[in-house]
């Protein structure tokens, strides 16, 4: 059962010099049987995991993923996750906050939603493994005059490797249709503004196009209307807060930009087919 807190727990990576960057390699036999180990949480930075051996099952925003050896996964700071099982795992992990992240990489990472595990081929995995090992060695040279810059640049190089892998499996931008380009821009705006912007007309204005055309693009690309995507994004955040925090439904409504609590309650029921309290009760059983 999730811990009853007023907010979703945020795990802070341990970097000794408070640099905003962390990297380590560890081997673990099995998941510790403790509430803290199983508790859902967010990270205080962008986090990356390279699985070398073992098998990991993880839940990210209510979806379960199985990660096999020679895989990599990226998690955005907003994503709520928890470990379900892992055994005989060897994993390298690194994290970096927005302040230290190359702005261009940050922009590209924002487009990886949701980030699913990627299985790497033998050559690519070897490159990752060598790069991580080198970065770990840099992280141990704390007395170097340019320690922070060295750590920052090497970690950004690892991020670039990850981004390149996700981009390789995505459709090339020069092959996007006009509908897909508009839909991509809408999704970026939605992720950025969903708490304050609730109407399709407002997103259309932001993108300098008409509301009917925005709807046409999004529906043609995804099969769903702009309103559907807005509601789904809001309800995802509501589910996170209902499941992982002890806030009341009214507090959650306010946090998500709804002063009209009854309206928010009706919206939740409409999208999910159950009341917010029913969702919380069902998922805490």
Explain what you see:
This protein has 2 domains: 10-169, Jelly Rolls; 175-283, Homeodomain-like (Arc Repressor Mutant, subunit A, Orthogonal Bundle), CATH 1.10.10.60. Helices cover 47% and strands 20% of the residues. It has 11 helices and 8 strands. Helix 6 packs across helix 7. The relative contact order is 0.11. The mean pLDDT is 85.
Summarize the structure.
With 285 residues, the protein is of the alpha+beta class. It is built from eleven helices and eight strands.
List descriptors.
6-stranded antiparallel beta sheet, 47% helix, Jelly Rolls, alpha+beta, Arc Repressor Mutant, subunit A
Average pLDDT rating: 85
Largest sheet: 6 strands, antiparallel
Structural class: alpha+beta
Number of domains: 2
Q: What is the strand and helix layout of this fold?
A:
Blueprint (H helix, E strand, L loop, with lengths): L9 E2 L9 E10 L4 H4 L3 E2 L2 E15 L2 E5 L3 E5 L5 E16 L6 H8 L7 E2 L2 H18 L7 H23 L8 H16 L6 H7 L4 H12 L3 H19 L4 H7 L5 H12 L3 H8 L2
Parallel strand pairs: 1-3
Antiparallel strand pairs: 2-7, 4-5, 4-6, 4-7, 6-8
């Amino acid at each position: 059962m999730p811990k009853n807190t007023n907010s979703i727990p945020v795990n802070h990576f341990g970097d000794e010099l408070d640099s905003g960057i962390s990297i380590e390699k560890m081997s673990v036999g099995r998941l510790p049987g403790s509430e803290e180990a199983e508790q859902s949480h967010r990270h205080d930075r962008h986090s990356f995991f390279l699985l070398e051996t073992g098998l990991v099952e993880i839940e990210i925003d209510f979806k379960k993923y199985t990660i096999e050896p020679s895989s990599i996964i990226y998690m955005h700071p907003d994503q709520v996750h928890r470990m379900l099982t892992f055994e005989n795992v060897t994993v390298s992990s690194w994290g970096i906050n927005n302040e230290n992240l190359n702005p261009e990489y940050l922009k590209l990472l924002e487009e990886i939603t949701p980030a699913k595990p990627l299985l790497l081929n033998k050559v690519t995995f070897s490159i990752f493994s060598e790069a991580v090992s080198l970065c770990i060695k840099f992280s141990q040279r704390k007395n170097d005059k340019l320690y922070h810059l060295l750590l920052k640049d090497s970690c950004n190089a690892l991020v670039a490797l990850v981004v390149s892998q996700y981009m390789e499996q995505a459709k090339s931008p020069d092959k996007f249709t006009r509908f897909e380009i508009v839909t991509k821009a809408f999704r970026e705006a939605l992720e950025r503004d969903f708490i304050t912007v609730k109407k399709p007309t407002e997103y259309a204005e932001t993108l300098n196009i008409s509301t009917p055309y925005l709807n046409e693009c999004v529906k043609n690309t995804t099969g769903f209307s702009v309103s559907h995507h807005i509601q789904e994004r809001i309800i995802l955040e509501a589910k996170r807060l209902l499941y992982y925090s002890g806030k009341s439904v009214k507090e959650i409504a306010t946090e998500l930009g709804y002063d009209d609590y009854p309206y928010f309650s009706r919206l939740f029921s409409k999208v999910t087919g159950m009341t917010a309290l029913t969702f919380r009760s069902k998922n805490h059983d």
